[in-house]
Amino acid sequence: KQAEKAVHQKKEQSKTKCRKARRRHINLVAEFNRRQRKNIWLETHIWHAKRFHMVKKWGYCLGDSPTEKSYRACYRAMTKHCLLQDLSYYCCLELTGRENELLKQLARICSTDAGLTFEEACCLSGRFEGSLNLYRADRYPEDMLGPVTFIWKPKDVSENRQLWIWMHPALKQDMLRELKAIFQCSEPEEIYVPEPITTSTQEEKQMDVVLSLGKKRKKEDKEGEKAVPVKKIIGDGTRDPFQSYSWISQTTGIVISDRTMEILRYRLIGPLSHSVLTETLKAASPQTV
Fold first, then answer.
1. The domain spanning residue 136 has which CATH number?
2. Do 72 and 96 have their domain in common?
3. Structural domain contains residue 218
4. Is residue 249 part of a domain?
5. What pTM, to 2 d.p., does this model score?
6. Within 13 Å and on the Cβ side, how many CA atoms surround 247?
7. Between 237 and which of 40, 103, 215, 250 could a Cys-Cys bridge form, CB atoms 3.0 to 4.6 Å apart?
């Protein structure tokens, strides 16, 4: 009897939600938003999910290893062609303010004895990316926070400079806490108010309304287009969506902003990496005022 009941329930489910209905764009986007409440998906998640074993780490859903039994394809791409990696799960902190004030305080969390610093001329111009190890303020060589990479925005007419610091998500909270302390950024500049996350029952009701509107949407129903849910990523894997993401110092005017998942990051490895970039990217024409 239990087996018959299970089969009967399965038939009822299949009637209400057939594969064609599940594969509609409206339902796919709603499912996309629902499934990444706990673990954030990268922009390339769908592509990786079809070809990789996925793992949940640091608040993200990441591709761990390919489903193929051999790594020869990746090795061949690295040695002869081009291999692209999605590193968008790495966290990005943006510092904005006067250059001398930024360098003065950043010198407290790094040292010339360890190698490169934020003041290196080639990096300060914005032409090259630098990498170094950060320490707690005035504690070198003890209390190392971890390795980071950074890049300065090239100078313009404004006196303010922008600096982007990239770090592993496991190090972000410690790095952010230390940067807020040395720059005295305690007051939130902006408060992020996300859209309310609907419950599963509410989503199902919304989807039923959307499906009813979507039947005649192509011909005459214009409101059906507005009812289509938008693919959205709320917050990131290292920050609660209700937390502030930008802080300002009243004494120095320095602003610290969390740009994680706002700036995508990809790594290209292989002899044809430069060729791929030149064929893919096109330089924008200079804007005349």
1. 3.30.70.1400
2. no
3. no
4. yes
5. 0.71
6. 18
7. 40
